[in-house]
Write a structure and sequence with these properties.
23% of the residues lie in helices and 20% in strands. The chain is an alpha+beta fold and 234 residues long.
């Protein structure tokens, strides 16, 4: 967030992990990092159509970037919100654009490997216990393999999908054959809540395990019985 000449600029992260929402409250444009905060101030109930969209798992782009309340606008991750000096007018302006794929794979791969190794090492070199998602996919499996080389004790979590065609657990178990020192925790897919019953603080629940630094909102009533209870909602 920044202010200059009476104008206010607010933006989230390019990854979409930290989103920005805004609405008009008593004639003033108000921005927040939680849509439910704005909804409470306006006395709004969730939009039934948006709730239905969340039953699509995962919701297709760009539907998952929309707010779950009418009257509350979600700012796309690549955009910033600029509120005018009058405190009422607002517009979105793009601040981030994905770079063009100009670097060949053979040149980029070693750089990505080095950056990933350094990132994992920075979080594991002190030892202790660390946790990681393990869906069996390229991202989480790479992180687990790198973390397993560290002094830390690694706990890998897999959250199988309810879809019978979901193969995350199968691939995660194959990866675990190469991670004998890693503790593998598998959540019960049948015990997991539907997307619309987890929490309404963000535009949608993530398919990845939530951040340990995130605190579940009071409106999140099902999290205590779900895998999200391990670290809060997302």
């Amino acid at each position: 967030m920044a202010a200059l000449d009476g104008r206010t600029r607010v933006q989230g992260t390019a990854s979409g992990l930290r989103l920005v929402f805004h609405a008009e409250i008593d004639g003033v444009r108000v921005a927040a990092t939680r849509a439910d905060t704005l909804a409470d101030a306006l006395g709004l109930a969730p939009d039934v159509e948006e709730l239905a969209v969340r039953l699509l798992w995962p919701a297709p782009y760009p539907l998952f970037e929309r707010s779950m309340w009418r009257g509350i606008t979600a700012v796309p991750p690549e955009d910033a919100l600029v509120v005018g000096a009058d405190g009422r007018t607002a517009r979105h302006t793009r601040w981030w654009t994905p770079p063009e794929p100009v670097r060949p794979l053979e040149e980029a791969a070693p750089l990505i490997r080095q950056a990933l190794e350094e990132a994992v090492a920075a979080r594991t070199r002190q030892g202790g216990v660390v946790s990681s998602d393990l869906s069996g996919g390229l991202d989480s499996t790479s992180v687990c393999l790198l973390a397993d080389r560290s002094p830390a004790r690694v706990v890998a979590g897999t959250w199988p999908g309810r879809d019978p065609a979901d193969t995350d657990l199968q691939w995660a178990q194959r990866a675990m054959r190469h991670l004998p020192d890693v503790e593998h925790v598998v959540w019960d897919a049948d015990a997991s809540p539907l997307v619309t019953t987890t929490c309404w603080a963000s535009t949608t629940c993530s398919t990845n395990p939530p951040s340990a630094s995130w605190t579940a909102p009071e409106s999140c009533t099902t999290c205590p019985t779900s895998p999200h209870a391990a670290a809060g909602c997302t």
